[in-house]
Design a protein that fits this description.
Oligomer: single chain
Structural class: mainly alpha
Distance between the termini: 48 Å
Radius of gyration: 21 Å
């Protein structure tokens, strides 16, 4: 117990450093920061469950008779594995969706932050576009299958874990702060808090494993703590902030699209709108969400792959560049424009 408390203290010190670094770009209500940080801590749970049972989830599905039957019809021997990875990915991601929904309902209603009625309304809003989550899951399934053909099991597994971490952190952000975000900047801010909570618990688990295995001496362990606090925590902050930025653009797509300059920059959306009949703001929303997911998940996948290949010297400039981008986004004045939401925003009338 004492060891756990010491590890928690050690892991929390760099979190305080990152909070100080972003101090001018954090939500103004401390209660929101605490609740979102706790939500980020809890988001580790579905990831660790996936890591523990991923073998069973993949290989049992791969041998379902329907896959073999389809392979015989299509005359493709690789089809069972491909379909298995896609179906597994869809099941895992949708399972994580409902797991996070249940987790956040307990946290929010139990803490008094929301009533059941408000949380239910928020859940319905988040699930308005289930095909978005399904399409992301299908893409991840295709990627997982492709990686098995080109990378060792250990490397592609951690690449996929990184992708799922971004998915779960984003879900936690949506369930925790969907009704508290009134600007693109705030979407980035809350994403950073979720990432810090996730990194805090992940670092505790990692440090405890290293200590239990007696892999390092005191000075080596200290160096590891410093290195991981900079790299891993900075990486989680960067990936989540990138997705938070694009989520913010998508969330306020109706308001943002009304700016006249977008009509010239996204004239292809006007063409699709005229041909298909889908609103330009809806197309803009879907484009930004998918763009953010691909960038954040891709950036995390590259980070994990670099670590697995022991290219630490490449990781430093990589994370530094991403952090510079995040700081740049947070200082763009146009991202601080406030919009309406579930409830009237007090800042909008200040």
């Amino acid at each position: 117990m004492i060891q756990l408390l010491l590890l928690s203290l050690v892991a929390f010190l760099p979190i305080l450093g990152w909070l100080y670094f972003f101090r001018d770009n954090l939500p103004k209500h401390y209660s929101y920061i605490v609740l979102t940080f706790m939500a980020g801590m809890l988001s580790v749970i579905p990831i660790k469950l996936y890591e523990a049972y991923w073998h069973t989830a993949v290989w049992k599905l791969e041998h379902l008779n329907v896959f073999k039957y389809l392979a015989e019809v299509a005359h493709l021997q690789t089809l069972p594995s491909l379909l298995a990875y896609i179906l597994t990915s869809v099941i895992v991601m949708m399972g994580m969706f409902f797991f996070v929904a249940l987790l956040m309902s307990v946290l929010e209603i139990g803490s008094g932050d929301n009533t059941w009625r408000v949380f239910k309304r928020k859940t319905v809003k988040i699930f308005e576009t289930p095909w978005f989550f399904v399409s992301v899951a299908v893409l991840c399934g295709l990627l997982a299958y492709a990686l098995t053909l080109s990378m060792s099991e250990k490397i592609w597994f951690f690449v996929m874990v990184g992708i799922l971490e971004e998915f779960v952190k984003h879900l936690v952000l949506r369930f925790s702060d969907e009704d508290k975000i009134y600007s693109v900047s705030e979407a980035i801010q809350f994403s950073i808090i979720v990432a810090l909570g996730f990194a805090f618990v992940e670092n505790i688990l990692y440090f405890s494993q290293v200590i239990e295995a007696s892999l390092m001496s005191g000075p080596q362990l200290f160096a590891l703590i410093v290195l991981r606090s900079i790299l891993s925590t900075g990486a989680h902050v960067s990936f989540s902030a990138i997705l938070g930025y694009y989520y913010g653009l998508a969330k306020f797509s109706n308001e943002i699209w009304q700016r006249q300059e977008l009509c010239r920059r996204y004239n292809w959306l006007q063409i699709v709108h005229e041909k298909v009949g889908i609103r330009c703001s809806t197309l803009f929303h879907d484009e930004k969400m998918m763009e953010g997911v691909i960038l954040a998940m891709g950036a995390h996948a590259i980070f994990n792959a670099l670590l697995e290949f022991n290219l630490v010297m490449v990781v430093f400039p990589y994370i530094f560049a991403l952090l510079l981008w995040v700081v740049h986004l947070l200082h763009q004045k146009q991202l601080h424009v406030y919009f309406g939401n579930f409830i009237k925003n007090p800042s909008a009338t200040a």
